[in-house]
Automatic annotation (TrEMBL):
<dbReference type="InterPro" id="IPR015421">
    <property type="entry name" value="PyrdxlP-dep_Trfase_major"/>
</dbReference>
<keyword id="KW-0808">Transferase</keyword>
<dbReference type="InterPro" id="IPR015422">
    <property type="entry name" value="PyrdxlP-dep_Trfase_small"/>
</dbReference>
<keyword id="KW-0663">Pyridoxal phosphate</keyword>
<dbReference type="Pfam" id="PF00202">
    <property type="entry name" value="Aminotran_3"/>
</dbReference>
<dbReference type="GO" id="GO:0008483">
    <property type="term" value="F:transaminase activity"/>
</dbReference>
<dbReference type="GO" id="GO:0030170">
    <property type="term" value="F:pyridoxal phosphate binding"/>
</dbReference>
<dbReference type="InterPro" id="IPR015424">
    <property type="entry name" value="PyrdxlP-dep_Trfase"/>
</dbReference>
<dbReference type="InterPro" id="IPR005814">
    <property type="entry name" value="Aminotrans_3"/>
</dbReference>
<keyword id="KW-0032">Aminotransferase</keyword>
<comment type="similarity">
    <text>Belongs to the class-III pyridoxal-phosphate-dependent aminotransferase family.</text>
</comment>
<protein>
    <submittedName>
        <fullName>Aminotransferase</fullName>
    </submittedName>
</protein>
Length: 450
């Protein structure tokens, strides 16, 4: 069931006018910013909200934020997981302020390094760690280590997967099943189709065929696809990947940047899976730019042995602000005081309430949509059931409907992630927030479909 194109457009135009009327200060700021910022924003992605003009932030705290006009929003976007545990957790605020006063970066290991290393190992179950400025940097690093250690040139990823701004992953399955560059890339000069294999998610036979060629250094995957709508992995598929990669002499990496919502220690820890490499990004620093990648002691030994053989010089891995004292202070506060079992219990209980409420609304309204939930993360899909591949998910997206839903909710003080229908529940989210969101979605469906 879907609303007519005309009805969706009419609702969008009405909500756009309402948005413009309630955000006049943001409109002025947008006009002023246009002179000095690309597309009028500090990061061009910020224009992807598709609003009449950008919404400018005044303050964010916990699960709430205020725009420049003083309008209050319950935040289910939470920085697209960057603030998954709430904006400005007090332990992080205190730790970061204290570390800034003592020095943020000095190209030296902080005295917190041993403790943070232990916390990371206890939390995620891997032995050794490195800190980066972003999950993109972490993925770049493990791709380099895997190629260097194995001496193999290619990596294997999945169609529709998300691993940040990493050149090696910007491929997709095109016409006739051929690997091609993703459309829209800016300034891409290297042909990465020769060094990156891409296969459909949940396709074991395609994985086996690529691994049989003997030149795959790394199988890199999310536990489920998260950036093309949410696409769950078939039962046992991720465990199959880990075993198949190792049997083929390749490393297996789990990118948990978007799935730390799964529970304490992330999806892999919850499901008893121990990868060779693990990437944990966005929320790990509580808002401070930071990510980590971990690996087993066995992988660490192979990296150490490889380093003994390579020529002196820059490895191409690491940036100046990575591993800073400021990052370690923030990560310590997050792991020790914020990302706790109690926090996850609260988040999952409310996320389950959201899932149940939306599912009930869809049934009451006769709408063939579904909700897919991974711990504290939930997403609305415009299909009766989840699909099994990135291509299938892309085919079923309805961009006009999605942007109308987002703006309708935004005008009612409820913020979803702009790129898709993703909702996050934080330790600061309340039952009444969940119920307000459910009621607003119900009202949207009433307007659109009845």
């Amino acid at each position: 069931m879907a609303g007519s194109v005309e009805k969706i457009e009419s609702l969008w135009q009405r909500e756009a006018a309402a948005y413009a009327a309630r955000t006049p200060k943001s409109a002025v700021l947008a006009e002023e910013a246009a002179s000095h910022w690309l597309k009028g924003v500090p990061l061009h992605w910020m224009s992807d909200w598709e609003l009449p003009h950008a919404l400018f932030l005044k303050e964010a705290k916990g699960a709430r934020l205020w725009d420049a006009d003083g309008n209050l929003y319950t935040d289910f976007c939470l920085g697209d997981t960057g603030a998954m545990f709430g904006h400005g957790p007090e332990p992080v605020v205190k730790a970061v302020a204290g570390q800034m006063a003592r020095g943020a970066t000095a190209m030296l290991p902080s005295e917190l390094a041993p403790e943070v290393g232990r916390l990371l190992s206890d939390h995620f179950g891997l032995d050794q760690w490195q800190v980066t400025a972003s999950a993109s940097d972490a993925n770049r690093a493990i791709i380099r280590w895997a190629r260097g250690v194995t001496g193999r040139p290619r990596i294997l990823i999945f169609d529709g997967s998300y691993h940040g701004a990493v050149d090696d992953v910007f491929v997709r399955i095109g016409a006739g099943g051929r690997t091609e560059l993703r459309p829209g890339l800016v300034g891409q000069v290297a042909d990465i189709t020769a060094t990156t294999a891409v296969v459909p998610f949940n396709d074991k036979e395609a994985v086996k065929a690529e691994l049989a060629k003997g030149d795959i250094a790394l199988v890199l995957t999310e536990p489920l696809l998260t950036n093309i709508g949410m696409v769950p992995s078939d039962p046992g598929f991720i465990a199959f990947l880990a075993e198949a990669a190792r049997e083929a002499g390749a490393f297996f990496a789990l990118d948990e940047t978007h799935t730390l919502s799964s529970g304490l220690g992330g999806w892999g820890r919850v499901h008893g899976l121990r990868p060779d490499f693990l990437v944990a990004g966005k929320p790990i620093g509580g808002g401070v730019p930071a990510a980590v990648y971990g690996f087993t002691a066995e992988v660490g030994a192979r990296i150490a042995a490889f380093n003994e053989t390579r020529a002196p010089g820059h490895s191409g891995i690491g940036t100046t602000l990575s591993g800073s004292a400021l990052q370690l202070a923030a990560i310590r506060a997050m792991l020790a005081e914020v990302m706790t079992e109690a926090a996850y219990t609260h988040m999952e209980q409310l996320a389950a309430r959201l899932e149940a409420g939306l599912t009930r609304v869809f049934k009451e309204k006769g709408v063939s949509w579904h909700v897919l939930r991974v711990g504290a993360r939930a997403e609305i899909g415009f299909t009766p059931n989840p699909v099994r591949s990135g291509a299938a998910s892309a085919e079923r997206m309805n961009h006009p409907l999605e942007r109308a839903l987002h703006l309708y909710l935004l005008n009612r003080g409820l913020m979803l992630t702009p790129f898709h229908n993703m909702m996050l529940v934080s330790p600061e989210t309340r039952e009444e927030d969940i119920d307000r969101l459910t009621q607003a979605v119900s009202a949207f469906l009433t307007e659109l479909f009845e």
